[in-house]
């Protein structure tokens, strides 16, 4: 097998950071399995673009990560289509406020299911194939895994759980598969909007005095997959220095 035949499954890859990661890996020779739940039109548009660049290099997978029964099937679809799996990028996430005192069990279950449970069970399903290729896993966590976000205690807890999943699986899968994480800070402003005052306050707390870019996240993911051969169980905090303040 040549390097150009490497295969990566990227969850939540229809848009925003996930789409940038998929494009970046594809540009560096990966065949990519795109995943989406609700953003299927955007996923198909991205797939069309990538297929136009390199025919036969893209698979699309629709699945609700809240349903654990879909996860082994996702991996099986990828392996059946491409014949191998070299990389798993757990990018998909859900995010909404859960003010303490008003949290419902359903909110807890949904946030933990997508942000922590799905990455764990996708990794479990993918592990035999990743071991065969001596592949790697990268999880997308959040700076709020270690610095809780006010009015988002359940989301922060879920991302903290994903950091421990990263460390635990690094130990379980060594030496054959490396498992690391990227913890972004402010990369894209929320789609629901953020006031200019709030943006300015955030910049004042960021030593680099700017937000990051999706391309910087994608580059970090590819570095962890391809070049960081002696690194496992680590979280790369790509936050412009926010955790220093």
- The low-pLDDT segments are none
Integer average pLDDT: 93
Strand content: 5-15%
Overall outline: globular
CATH superfamily: NAD(P)-binding Rossmann-like Domain
Look at the helices and sheets and give the structural class: alpha/beta
What is the N-to-C succession of helices and strands? EHEHEHEHEHEHHE
What's the number of extended β-strand segments? 7
Spatial strand sequence of the major β-sheet: 3-2-1-4-5-6-7
Please write the CATH class name: Alpha Beta
In whole angstroms, the N-to-C terminal distance is 47 Å
Helical content (DSSP H or I, runs of 4+): 40-55%
Subunit organisation of the chains: single chain
From the 3D coordinates, which CATH architecture would you assign? 3-Layer(aba) Sandwich
Describe this structure in words.
It is a single chain. The protein is of the alpha/beta class and 245 residues long. It has a single domain, classed as NAD(P)-binding Rossmann-like Domain (Rossmann fold, 3-Layer(aba) Sandwich), CATH 3.40.50.720. The protein contains seven helices and seven strands. The chain has helices at residues 16-27, 40-53, 70-82, 105-133, 153-173, 196-204, 214-226, and strands at residues 7-10, 31-36, 58-62, 87-90, 136-140, 178-184, 235-238. It has a seven-stranded parallel β-sheet with strand order 3-2-1-4-5-6-7, with helices on both faces. The model has no long low-confidence stretch (mean pLDDT 93).
């Amino acid at each position: 097998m040549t390097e150009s035949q490497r295969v990566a499954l990227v969850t939540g890859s229809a848009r925003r950071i996930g789409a940038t990661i998929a494009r970046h890996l594809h540009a560096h020779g990966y065949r990519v399995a795109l995943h989406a739940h609700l953003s299927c039109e955007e996923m198909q548009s991205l797939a069309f673009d990538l297929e136009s660049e390199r025919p036969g290099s893209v698979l699309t997978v629709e699945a609700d990560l809240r349903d654990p029964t879909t996860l082994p099937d996702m991996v099986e679809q990828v392996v059946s289509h491409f014949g191998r799996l070299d990389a798993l990028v757990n990018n998909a996430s859900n995010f909404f406020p859960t003010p303490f005192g008003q949290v419902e069990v359903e909110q807890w279950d949904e946030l933990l299911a997508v942000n922590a449970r799905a990455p764990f069970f996708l990794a479990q399903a993918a592990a035999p194939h990743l071991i065969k290729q001596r592949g790697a896993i990268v999880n997308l966590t959040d700076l709020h895994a270690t610095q809780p976000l006010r009015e988002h205690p359940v989301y922060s807890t879920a991302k903290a759980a994903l950091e421990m999943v990263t460390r635990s699986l690094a130990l379980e899968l060594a030496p054959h598969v490396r498992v690391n994480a990227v913890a972004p800070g402010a990369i894209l402003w929320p789609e629901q909007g953020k006031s200019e005052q709030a943006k300015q306050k955030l910049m004042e707390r960021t030593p680099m005095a700017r937000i990051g870019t999706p391309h910087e996240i994608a580059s970090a993911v590819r570095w962890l997959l391809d070049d960081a051969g002696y690194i496992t169980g680590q979280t790369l905090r790509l936050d412009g220095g926010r955790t220093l303040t």
